[in-house]
Amino acid sequence: MSETTENIEIHRGLKGVYFDRSRACYIDGRAGELRYRGYSIHDLAERSTFEETCYLLLKGELPARAELDAFTAELKAARALPVPLYDVIRTVRNAHPMDVLRTAVSALAAFDPETADKSPEATLRKGIRLTAQVPMIVAAHEHIRNGREPVAPNP
Questions:
Q1: CA separation for the pair 37, 28 (Å, rounded)
Q2: What pTM, to 2 d.p., does this model score?
Q3: Can you name the residues that pair with 25 across neighbouring β-strands?
């Protein structure tokens, strides 16, 4: 095994990291401004639900009541995790929670029925599933690392 003597520069946060424009998000760090699809994050935090904000990010506009109800139903229907994913979480249970989340999210691709479909419609469905499953991964890891069995989502 050889060691490298080159200097490695570490960037904390996003300092020195460049990114392009986005229709979904606008950040002005100097002004302390964060906007999602033109809406201030402060206004969204005060006046919108998590589901409404997710809908806004994924679909580009705030939902009407019927759209929100349908979207919420989609999220609820997509919460269940593939059974083998619990074994992945058990295997890495002692890792940092962010490492567990990253690993579990990556593993989800192995169980995605639409992996090969890169269409905008399939990508949206994948985003909805991921939005629904990430909190379930976090909850499952919390249970597993504390010696309890994960709890199935409550529809």
A1: 14
A2: 0.80
A3: 36
